[in-house]
């Protein structure tokens, strides 16, 4: 489906590693950006190359506009173009409301919202050269459903709600360029490393499908969104039905 396409995946750890590999399996060459997880990025690149596709690994802090510009410059120099942007870079930090100072607020918004804008904005000259291009952002099932859900995540919730709004606004702005912009809002996909078995079970029990989704469900959603020609401005919840319960 994606033969000869070039796809950028930012924040390619855990779920991102599977997304990158499945995009490569569909025929795309892959660019992986990382901030501190070089070993994981290189391991993913090795798997992409084993599938017969090209892989480029670039260090970039995508919460910084200058790093995003350098990242896109490296892609143009090495790959010659760009067809797909998957903005997965994110942080998930619980903070008591009283502990959210200016630095913490800006840090959460930059990592979870501004990064998607900075990368996409920097990539526009390359994306506009294609007949059709795709951007996939990452929100969260709770803000996509208008439900804060858990205390202690004010800045994260606001940022991820902003991703949904950013997706809609960019879809309108870029439609005339043939750039389709959508978002994925994951639910219980992959348990955090520090989660206990009882906690994992409680999450599964609260999910109508009674299980965690697994990384492949996100990769399948990404593949669907980067191969559509008529869906744009949409935020797709991949949450096992959590939003209807």
Largest beta sheet: strand ordering: 3-2-1-4-5-6-7
The general outline is globular
Q: State mean pLDDT (0 to 100 scale).
A: 95
Helix/strand order, N-terminal first: EHEHEHEHEHHEHHE
Cα(first) to Cα(last) distance is 35 Å
Q: State the share of residues found in helices, binned by percent.
A: 40-55%
CATH topology: Rossmann fold
Number of helices: 8
Could you list some keywords that capture this structure?
alpha/beta; 8 helices; seven-stranded parallel β-sheet; 45% helix; single chain; 245 residues; Rossmann fold
Can you walk me through this structure?
By secondary structure, this protein is an alpha/beta fold. It has a single domain (6-244), classed as 3-Layer(aba) Sandwich (Rossmann fold). The protein has eight helices and seven strands, in the order E-H-E-H-E-H-E-H-E-H-H-E-H-H-E. The protein has helices at residues 15-25, 38-50, 65-79, 102-127, 141-144, 154-174, 197-205, 215-225, and strands at residues 6-10, 29-34, 55-59, 84-87, 133-138, 179-186, 235-238. A seven-stranded parallel sheet has the order 3-2-1-4-5-6-7, with helices on both faces. Helix 4 packs parallel to helix 6. The longest helix is centred in the middle third of the chain and has 26 residues, at 102-127. It is globular and about 45 Å long. The model has no long low-confidence stretch (mean pLDDT 95).
């Amino acid at each position: 489906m994606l033969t000869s396409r070039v796809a950028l995946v930012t924040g390619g750890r855990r779920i991102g590693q599977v997304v990158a590999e499945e995009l490569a399996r569909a025929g795309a060459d892959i660019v992986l950006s990382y901030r501190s997880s070089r070993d994981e990025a290189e391991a993913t690149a090795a798997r992409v190359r084993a599938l017969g596709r090209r892989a480029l690994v670039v260090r970039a802090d995508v919460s910084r506009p200058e790093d995003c510009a350098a990242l896109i410059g490296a892609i143009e120099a090495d790959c010659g173009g760009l067809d797909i942007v998957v903005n997965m870079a994110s942080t998930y930090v619980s903070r008591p409301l009283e502990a959210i100072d200016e630095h913490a607020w800006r840090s959460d918004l930059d990592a979870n919202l501004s990064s998607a804008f900075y990368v996409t904005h920097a990539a526009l000259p390359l994306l506009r050269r294609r007949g059709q291009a795709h951007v996939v952002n990452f929100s969260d099932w709770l803000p996509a459903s208008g439900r804060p859900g858990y205390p202690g995540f004010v800045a994260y919730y606001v940022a991820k709600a902003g991703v949904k709004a950013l997706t809609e606004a960019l879809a309108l702005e870029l439609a005339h360029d043939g750039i389709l912009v959508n978002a994925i809002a994951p639910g219980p996909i992959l348990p955090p490393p520090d989660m206990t078995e009882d906690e994992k079970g409680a999450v599964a029990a609260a999910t109508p499908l009674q299980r965690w989704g697994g990384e492949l469900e996100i990769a399948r959603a990404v593949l669907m969104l980067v191969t559509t020609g008529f869906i744009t401005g949409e935020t797709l919840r991949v949450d096992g039905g959590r939003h209807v319960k």
